[in-house]
Specification:
The complex is a heterohexamer, with 3 copies of chain A (112 residues) and 3 copies of chain D (490 residues). Chain A is of the alpha+beta class and 112 residues long. Chain A is 23% helix and 41% strand. In chain A, 49% of the residues are buried. Chain D has 490 residues and is mainly α. Chain D has a two-stranded antiparallel ribbon with strand order 1-2. In chain D, a hairpin with an 8-residue loop joins strand 5 and strand 6. Chain D is globular. The N terminus of chain D is likely disordered. The chains are: A alpha+beta (112), D mainly alpha (490). Strand 6 of chain A pairs antiparallel with strand 7 of chain C, so a sheet runs across the interface. Bound molecules: adenosine-5'-diphosphate (ADP) (3 copies). One adenosine-5'-diphosphate sits at the interface of chains C and B.
Chain lengths: 112, 112, 112, 490, 490, 490
Amino acid sequence: MKIVMAIIKPFKLEEVRDALTTIGVHGLTVTEVKGYGRQKGHTEIYRGAEYAVSFLPKLKIEVAINSDLVPQVIDAISEAAKTGQIGDGKIFVSSIEQAVRIRTGERDQDAL
Amino acid sequence: MKIVMAIIKPFKLEEVRDALTTIGVHGLTVTEVKGYGRQKGHTEIYRGAEYAVSFLPKLKIEVAINSDLVPQVIDAISEAAKTGQIGDGKIFVSSIEQAVRIRTGERDQDAL
Amino acid sequence: MKIVMAIIKPFKLEEVRDALTTIGVHGLTVTEVKGYGRQKGHTEIYRGAEYAVSFLPKLKIEVAINSDLVPQVIDAISEAAKTGQIGDGKIFVSSIEQAVRIRTGERDQDAL
Amino acid sequence: MKLRSMLSLGLAGLGTALTSVAVLAADAPAAPVPNKGDTAWMLISTVLVLLMTIPGLALFYGGLVRTKNMLSVLSQVFAIVALVAILWVVFGYSLAFTPSAIGDYVGGLDKLFLKGVTVDSVVATFSNGVVIPELVYVVFQMTFACITPALIVGAFAERIRFSAVLVFVTLWVTFIYFPIAHMVWYWAGPDAIADAAKLLAAATDDAAKAAAQTKLDAVMADAGLAFQWGALDFAGGTVVHINAGIAGLVGAIMIGKRVGYGRELMAPHSLTMTMVGASLLWVGWFGFNAGSNLEAGGGAVLAMVNTFVATAAATLSWLFTEWMAKGKPTLLGMVSGAVAGLVAVTPASGFAGPMGAIVLGLLVSPVCYFFVSTVKNTLKYDDSLDVFGVHCVGGIIGALATGILVNPALGGVGIADYAMKPGELSVADYDMATVMLAQLKAVALTLVWSGVGSAILYKITDMLVGLRVSPEAEREGLDITEHDERAYNY
Amino acid sequence: MKLRSMLSLGLAGLGTALTSVAVLAADAPAAPVPNKGDTAWMLISTVLVLLMTIPGLALFYGGLVRTKNMLSVLSQVFAIVALVAILWVVFGYSLAFTPSAIGDYVGGLDKLFLKGVTVDSVVATFSNGVVIPELVYVVFQMTFACITPALIVGAFAERIRFSAVLVFVTLWVTFIYFPIAHMVWYWAGPDAIADAAKLLAAATDDAAKAAAQTKLDAVMADAGLAFQWGALDFAGGTVVHINAGIAGLVGAIMIGKRVGYGRELMAPHSLTMTMVGASLLWVGWFGFNAGSNLEAGGGAVLAMVNTFVATAAATLSWLFTEWMAKGKPTLLGMVSGAVAGLVAVTPASGFAGPMGAIVLGLLVSPVCYFFVSTVKNTLKYDDSLDVFGVHCVGGIIGALATGILVNPALGGVGIADYAMKPGELSVADYDMATVMLAQLKAVALTLVWSGVGSAILYKITDMLVGLRVSPEAEREGLDITEHDERAYNY
Amino acid sequence: MKLRSMLSLGLAGLGTALTSVAVLAADAPAAPVPNKGDTAWMLISTVLVLLMTIPGLALFYGGLVRTKNMLSVLSQVFAIVALVAILWVVFGYSLAFTPSAIGDYVGGLDKLFLKGVTVDSVVATFSNGVVIPELVYVVFQMTFACITPALIVGAFAERIRFSAVLVFVTLWVTFIYFPIAHMVWYWAGPDAIADAAKLLAAATDDAAKAAAQTKLDAVMADAGLAFQWGALDFAGGTVVHINAGIAGLVGAIMIGKRVGYGRELMAPHSLTMTMVGASLLWVGWFGFNAGSNLEAGGGAVLAMVNTFVATAAATLSWLFTEWMAKGKPTLLGMVSGAVAGLVAVTPASGFAGPMGAIVLGLLVSPVCYFFVSTVKNTLKYDDSLDVFGVHCVGGIIGALATGILVNPALGGVGIADYAMKPGELSVADYDMATVMLAQLKAVALTLVWSGVGSAILYKITDMLVGLRVSPEAEREGLDITEHDERAYNY
Ligand SMILES: Nc1ncnc2c1ncn2[C@@H]1O[C@H](COP(=O)(O)OP(=O)(O)O)[C@@H](O)[C@H]1O
Ligand SMILES: Nc1ncnc2c1ncn2[C@@H]1O[C@H](COP(=O)(O)OP(=O)(O)O)[C@@H](O)[C@H]1O
Ligand SMILES: Nc1ncnc2c1ncn2[C@@H]1O[C@H](COP(=O)(O)OP(=O)(O)O)[C@@H](O)[C@H]1O
């Protein structure tokens, strides 16, 4: 099993969710995060003092899936989250060794 | 070493923390997340317009532990977080290769 | 490729970011989390009722890097985030198997 | 027509006193017209009491609940204001402020739908020859009727059904609030008494005297039950705070504790909002208390000063009590103290002197603190926002203290006797036992009427629509489950 | 000098009526001086209308947008208040409240920079012989000029440039608001009419009669266009709400829909703030409506009662309408209903009776609900905060209902006729067709003047500075892109 | 008894002037009674000043700090209001508003615990023969005493101990505020002057004249130091704003910079709350300024108009200054400008004309902007919320401008001379040098007295309880470390 973690632009969430649903992935977890990267931040001005704010709001999506689904999931997310503008985000894939569904105690594949 | 990540219902946090403490796990990190899965979301109505909200508030718990503790930790979390109702959440286990305690520089097992 | 996850004290963010920039790491993702560990929490009092609050605000930093950078990154974070006081936090390192830059579709090393 | 009551006792030596009074009854003086300064003050006082309620009380309460129930509290308060405003003009004003129809318990139906109340009708104040437009009295009193049931909902916040609130409040104002307002505040007014007393003084033969005495007795008896007892309640210690406080306690007990109560942290979701609410309560309460003088004169000014300093004193005494007991000075403590002070000074505000008001403020906070921190935990009822501990307890302290602080020897203004020198304001002799007995009786009346009555009405409401939401709904929060809305989408 | 208008028709039987009036014209009575109760009431009413706007309206609107646009809304409202206040004293007051200079459409330039307005100048009210300081009238009316354009910005919130708001509002108040205020509210005042009418009554020979009649006609014609038609608008149903509402609709259409409109969830970021704003609107609206009486008398009291109960009724009727339609009682529904009620009762507040006001409140909400939920979705315009659906629609309902509810037979106060018995307030016979025609004409005038005029002004603004931000800026939010600030840094 | 001062100079030609005045002293006229319109206005003005402070100022300040210190700011402001209210009635009012006991610096102890102040006592206003209830003056002035120290705490927000605030404020109002209020605002009132002047005019022989002159001199000298100088401060430019502003600066410097100041982003945690606070400041400030007229007359109206337009002008001028300097129009800029405008117009509000007030508003913002953005950064003191840059600088500009704008030639009302035509209001000749000298002396007096005095009191406070929290506590935030509470639990 793998866990795919994607950092995306906030307003792309619905599209990514839909894309994943289309390929049969029906569970995911979303976290509000702040990202730092190449994308330029913005300036904030408070009483004449300027602050450069370099952390930008992003969403982190985590999806646990069967290993064979990885390419499809990557494609689905990439396509849905892409604007072509700097700051579109990243996808990282790692392994998970066990999975459990708390409600039923089901394990691994059945738990996803 | 492993890192156990559990998605649970928010009001179960105290019980899960207690269960982990009982088996000797004294450190953990919690994140507020939104989950999408089988559990039905809710409707929101604003001036007569209905919106289906499918993301539900959940907590993500991350616990780094020695590998031998994994079964115990899974059991402890599962039991404490279970209501038997849909949406109770998941547990995922992955490996970590190194751990460092920033304050002391201790490594790996000593760092947990 | 590795992903380094560090739990740090919130006011150390700027210093950690600077330290990472110094060693050439220009991307990272930050999440607000609550930590439970040895560091004592605080008490809150509401209308004469005392509550012990054991979860403390922390920041979680995630940095995806090439494997060879791991020691440097650990050192950079450790130094920058250290106050020497209990609760300085932890660093955990795991593997990632794939990385994708959504904007360009670049993979792995190029995606970081 | 509220207070500045006259102890019925005060009439004892009347027969003699009156004989020396010049006879004036014959030449009917021109009907008094409202002074625009008074009207302006009553208009703005009305606005201030609405401000106390929305957004004041709504925020004070709302800030104290968890995020997931914020809107439910705001909704309940807002809906109550709207609902009771309509009930008030339809039948509430008539039940409260027309002559007693059933015993001395409740008024009649003469002014249903404000029948006969025009732009030109006037009502009496506490001063002879001073009147205000009746409609401003209607709308000023309306705001009192609106806020009182809104106070109650704090006691069972975070678990009540919205429909239950609507049903219960409709029943409660009808059977509890309107009657108690009538019993404590309804009277014929000073000019009616003066006229009757002058007639008596002018009566020359025994037959005329007897007739005039009968007439005077009738005027004196044209008042609510507690008013006739001589109970003093300047701005609503019994009618508003004890009344709502005991109804809240009964509700909290009957509805039961919140899921997780005592185990989970139920920290206020926004003390910022609570502080804003408390501040607006303080600000608006000047309309409540000083407005209850019904005139922009010295009495209103005194009520404002008393309200200010009693609240300040109670703020400080809660602050220091908690600081000593728990080691930290808290904002929630200060604002709780402020509200306790406001509650306690409410019945006393037009009767006490400023130093008396300060003493009252200093005393009320430690007692309320003891109730909300110790008594509640010992008796294990879940009065979510301490409606009983602050409003009922504070109201009782205020009601009793009023009986003491009204004493001119303690800087109070004394108890008006409108019959002694008809047409002039005289102060009756102060007799502590008499006054305190009247105060105690009024407190007991309110506790019993509202306590027992509310219990019955909760039962009826439960049968009609169900009082409480399901445990799952409570977990998820009433905002989503009852209203399909969320307070914040940051 | 606002309303309590007199239908020009009411003058029909004048000739005869006047002959029986005692001649008083010769001995010039002492010029009336302001009553301090009136002055106090107008001062506080002014404060209340500012409170409605900031923070009231700003929070009501701000809570409804997404977090990223919160400050942009607050900034627009705040800036508009400051900008229009200056424009008002520089030329707005003169354009609105000096004798007509161009047709009966707009006043002249005599009082530019408040020339000639001193601490001692006074203006007429709706009562003979009652005046208030002119400066308090200036500042009271200023708050109306400030809030009206601020209402508009809700229609295109979340996508307008800040500079466009400043330019558009400057143009809009100049060419739309000041003229319409003049047309609807400017008149010579009751004493001018009474004086002319008395002269006429005193005229003995035909020449004098003709001269006096000419004089009276001139006084009657010294009024704005709609005022001369006899249109009734107590506190701004046409001038404020229809006027702003139609301008908002035109703007929403011309500027276009928000990016993502209809697809993305655009949930209010803080219904808490919206509730606070709505409550302050309710609270402050008493200054708006009851203050429009210009005196602290029975008329102000009536306006306050009407405002209270109409709002309460509209709150409940929106609540139940939505509850039935969607299955849940919502807070946003209640506060939307409250605002709809406030809007609808605005033109009627000094004319209707309380029961009429309740009926009006009950009716307005379902209609507005239909507009914001069904009509808007069907016609697919993006009126972000329902300025049209609530203010324009509610204002039209109120304007028309005013024509009906003013009927004394329905509990209304009737239409004042200042010429019938000069110096006394008489009520003209009620003729529904006449009144309704005047109301309809005033509504149509406002819709056309403001609708067409605004379209032109949006176009000009677009050419000057551009109306809309870029789609990227809209995605990121106006707070950062237009103001370099964020509303919250928790 | 505040201002409308009379320059002592104005008395020069008095002897001659008075001889032509009719002798009236013999027949003592009936003591004036308060007008209910005035009383209503003073009551509501008092309420408005409280609203300015809680929640107004508390939110304005609170929104500007970081989340972790929100409650500490709210707590400090709330506690100060409660504390100073009590100190005021216990001894503050006596020190400020009884005849000078030590030099002309401070009043005596005659009215400790409000001794002798009853519901019937009255005090003078600025008009001959017009009085208001003394208790309303006590409570109105109380709100000024409450808000002034609350302004100070913004200067060292986010690092002060709560106990230090309580100790410092107690000392500060005692040794700084009460004396300065006495020096600037205490005088015998217009009727006392008129009576003495009439006596002088009536004196026939030289002995009588000398005696009468002595008497008149004594009445003129029965005033605070700055008042005798002829310094003009309508509503508190020196007493409130310069006074608090300089005390804040001294505190900020002595307590030192915040941990991380200059390096970390210290963005306001909620500009929404700051905007609400600023709006309530604006709204409530009408009570502050127009209430300072002490009557509901033309002077109050003028003060309201001036307050409105100066604030509007300053809002716009800060907006455009920052827009040009930094490229973006910000909300924080607008509300800072509004507060600067309010501060600057405070001393001038009853003296200037509306156009003068606009000019003042336009000027004050760029100067304050320069101080908060450039001077502060250059001199590197950490005045957290710009108490010095806005209140002290704005107050100085206002105080000096008052001396210019009072000139009738510039639309001002001129300086009252109560002795010229006793019993009537006369305007003294305007002499710029004289007036400006008085203004400068009053500003200097305040800067020195409060600057030096505050430094000593900070030192004492530090020795008693310690001024500053530990760096760890500062990192964690004062809410948790000082109060064991958190502002938000979302
Ligand atoms: N090395 C990294 N480790 C973790 N997160 C990263 C890393 N680099 C970038 N990110 C995340 O991806 C987001 C987008 O990256 P950025 O460099 O701005 O643009 P792009 O994705 O187009 O290359 C960042 O805001 C950050 O959240
Ligand atoms: N494949 C997945 N990857 C990541 N998180 C998941 C996945 N499936 C479910 N989750 C998380 O688990 C939560 C519970 O899942 P859900 O399907 O609603 O119920 P259950 O846990 O009872 O099967 C979701 O809200 C989501 O946060
Ligand atoms: N086993 C663990 N798994 C995950 N996070 C942990 C673990 N132990 C500690 N943490 C995180 O590290 C933070 C600091 O740990 P703590 O024990 O308080 O101090 P220290 O880092 O100095 O040992 C905690 O607040 C928590 O967020």
